[in-house]
């Protein structure tokens, strides 16, 4: 971990004003330290010669004012640094959230959401110590020793030479200790992130764990990770205490050397009493900021380590919004033309998809044509690539080969918001937010009125159970919709899709949690409500595929065959990759 991470300053534009004030207050504190030492030496020297208190009243008043000013500067520096920390944390959290949204679900599938949550909350909170204590001390450590050295050298050059020879020992020892601190702190933070992610998984899967009697083993796993985290934390504290002891000992020995040589020369009459007092008062101030910055370095190490993980995510390149390869652009580009799924054809040409870290391709050479108003069903065994094909159309993933064109325009060249505004999506496991039923249905159409929401619920077969809830459409569904059954959550997700006036409806196992009667009613509702729209449905049950328009089978990422249901008059020609 570097003494000053430039990435924190680069990603903290909102805090630069506060940091400038912190530096200015550090300069002021340096001047006050020198003035305070000079005044104390003057007062004590004058008192030793018999000068009365009345004569020293002015100097004592100025000294009191300097002490008050130094306290105010210290308080102002910490307050300003805390404001800087708050600004940086807010900015980093916004950027991290925006970037994770750009990375999309495919990236999040490879990372534990609990660890990202811990990083965004508890991890970035550790920056308070970095900005409020470490950075101000770092500023003082850069200013005060040199200012003290210049002042002491001007008063007594011999003492200045002793300080010059001993002062470099402090940063050298701090660097040696800091190398060990980096490893222990990084391990401590990784264990904390793992603990947070695992605990979130346990909480979310608690019903399943209780049902299968696996609650106690998971509690033991959490206990083991907690013990490991405790050990790592204690190891970090041990390093901090030992490094503090080493720095304190070094500073004490160096100060003692200056005190001994000044005392001997004072007895011999080679230095004045006031000069000796000034040197003895300023010498500890030269080492104090270096000792303090070493201690605060350990206190802020966890926040800096978490910030490093944040920067690693921010540096992860997001999927391109616009195709960068000329090979992937259609020859008949329609630049500037807005595509519309109500009139334009979706054409997949040799599309291939490979996820990072996987040897086998999710999709291989898939070619098909989907015209406006088509109803297409994708079927096949689990892992065949059905959901991956939907992910491509949703632009959660991007083709690693081939291209997808909409009315002759490459999908990658269409603005993301413009494309997704034309899509409704019903995932296999829909997410409901901890708000009311009405708000969950109106998620994609926040301007919709209560009557439109009720019609969508009626079409999805959800109106009956919603009206029987304690507060009807105003009833809260709880976190992840846990107050509802799986089938009810699915029906609300379908109502959400029906309410959104989108020309393309994508559904991943929409009837997986419904009984046969409800599934039949849903098919009828889809046929009625989506008569003039394009519907692409995924199912692994071939028996549900018949009578639902065109049906394609995916097997190991390839379109092996097309199952032709009755009536055949609804079919549209399609090219199937060999």
Largest sheet: 6 strands, mixed
Q: What's the CATH class of the largest domain, please?
A: Mainly Alpha
| Residue fraction in strands | 5-15%
Q: In the CATH hierarchy, what is the architecture of the largest domain at level 2?
A: Up-down Bundle
Task: Tell me how many strands there are.
Answer: 10
Structural class: alpha/beta
CATH topology of the largest domain: ABC transporter transmembrane region fold
Overall pLDDT level: 78
- As residue ranges, the low-confidence spans are 322-335, 566-578
Sheet with the most strands: spatial strand order: 6-7-8-3-9-10
Count the DSSP helices: 17
Task: Write out the CATH superfamily name of the largest domain.
Answer: ABC transporter type 1, transmembrane domain
Helicity range: 55-70%
Q: Kindly report how far apart the N and C termini lie.
A: 54 Å
Number of domains: 2
Order of helices and strands: HHHHHHHHHHEEEHEEHEHHHHEHEEE
What does this structure look like?
It is a single chain. The chain is an alpha/beta fold and 578 residues long. It has two domains: 6-314, ABC transporter transmembrane region fold, CATH 1.20.1560.10; 373-390 and 415-568, P-loop containing nucleotide triphosphate hydrolases (Rossmann fold, 3-Layer(aba) Sandwich). Helices cover 59% and strands 10% of the residues. The protein contains 17 helices and ten strands. The protein has helices at residues 6-10, 16-48, 57-108, 113-125, 127-155, 157-166, 169-204, 206-211, 215-268, 273-314, 386-394, 416-420, 437-441, 450-459, 463-467, 486-499, 516-529; strands spanning 346-353, 363-370, 375-379, 401-406, 409-410, 423-426, 504-508, 534-539, 550-555, 558-563. Strands 6-7-8-3-9-10 form a six-stranded mixed sheet, with helices on both faces. The chain has a four-stranded antiparallel sheet with strand order 2-1-4-5, with no helix packed on it. Strand 9 and strand 10 (558-563) form a beta hairpin. Helix 2 (16-48) packs antiparallel against helix 10. The longest helix is centred in the middle third of the chain and has 54 residues, at 215-268. The chain is elongated, with a radius of gyration of 34 Å. Mean pLDDT is 78; it is low at 322-335 and 566-578.
């Amino acid at each position: 971990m570097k003494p000053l991470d430039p990435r924190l300053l680069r990603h903290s534009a909102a805090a630069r004003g506060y940091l400038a004030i912190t530096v200015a207050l550090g300069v002021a504190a340096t001047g006050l330290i020198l003035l305070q030492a000079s005044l104390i030496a003057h007062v004590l020297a004058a008192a030793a010669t018999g000068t009365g208190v009345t004569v020293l009243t002015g100097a004592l008043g100025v000294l009191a004012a300097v002490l008050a000013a130094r306290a105010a500067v210290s308080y102002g520096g910490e307050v300003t640094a805390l404001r800087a920390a708050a600004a940086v944390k807010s900015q980093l959290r916004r950027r991290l959230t925006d970037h994770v949204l750009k990375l999309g679900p495919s990236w999040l599938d490879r990372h534990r959401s609990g660890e990202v949550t811990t990083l965004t909350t508890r991890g970035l909170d550790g920056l308070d110590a970095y900005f409020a204590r470490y950075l101000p001390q770092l500023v003082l450590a850069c200013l005060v020793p040199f200012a003290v050295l210049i002042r002491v050298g001007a008063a007594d050059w011999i003492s200045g030479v002793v300080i010059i020879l001993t002062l470099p020992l402090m940063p050298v020892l701090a660097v040696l200790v800091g190398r060990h601190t980096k490893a222990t702190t990084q391990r401590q933070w990784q264990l904390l992130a793992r603990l947070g992610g695992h605990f979130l998984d346990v909480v979310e899967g608690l019903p399943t764990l209780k049902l299968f009697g696996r609650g106690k083993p998971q509690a033991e796993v959490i206990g083991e990770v907690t013990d490991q985290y405790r050990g790592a934390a204690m190891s970090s504290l041990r390093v901090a205490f030992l490094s503090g002891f080493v720095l304190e000992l070094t500073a004490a020995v160096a100060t003692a050397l200056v005190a001994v040589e000044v005392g001997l020369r004072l007895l011999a009459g080679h230095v004045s009493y006031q000069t000796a007092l000034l040197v003895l008062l300023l010498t500890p101030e030269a080492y104090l900021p270096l000792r303090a910055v070493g201690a605060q370095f350990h206190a802020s190490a966890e926040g800096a380590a978490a910030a490093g993980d944040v920067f690693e995510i921010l540096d992860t390149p997001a999927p391109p919004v616009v195709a960068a390869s000329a090979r992937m652009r259609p020859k008949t580009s329609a630049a500037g033309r807005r595509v519309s799924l109500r009139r334009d054809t979706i054409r997949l040409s040799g599309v291939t998809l490979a996820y990072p870290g996987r040897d086998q391709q999710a999709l291989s050479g898939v070619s098909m044509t989907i015209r406006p108003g088509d109803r297409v069903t994708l079927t096949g065994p689990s892992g065949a690539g059905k959901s991956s094909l939907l992910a491509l159309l949703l632009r959660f993933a991007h083709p690693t080969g081939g291209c997808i064109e909409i009315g002759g325009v490459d999908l990658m060249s269409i603005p993301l918001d413009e494309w997704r505004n034309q899509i409704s999506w019903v995932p296999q496991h829909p997410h409901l937010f901890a708000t009311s039923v009405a708000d969950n249905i109106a998620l994609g159409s926040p301007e919709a009125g209560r009557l439109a929401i009720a019609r969508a619920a009626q079409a999805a077969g959800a109106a009956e159970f919603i009206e029987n809830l304690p507060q009807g459409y105003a009833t809260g569904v709880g976190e992840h919709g846990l107050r509802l059954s799986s089938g009810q959550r699915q029906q609300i997700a379908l109502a959400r899709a029906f309410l959104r006036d989108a020309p393309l409806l994508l559904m991943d196992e929409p009837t997986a949690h419904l009984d046969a009667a409800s599934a039949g009613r849903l098919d009828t509702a889809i046929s009625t409500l989506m008569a003039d729209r394009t519907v692409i449905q995924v199912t692994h049950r071939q028996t549900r595929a018949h009578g639902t328009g065109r049906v394609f089978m995916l097997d190991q990422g390839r379109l092996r065959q097309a199952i032709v249901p009755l009536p055949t008059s609804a079919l549209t020609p399609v090219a199937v990759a060999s």
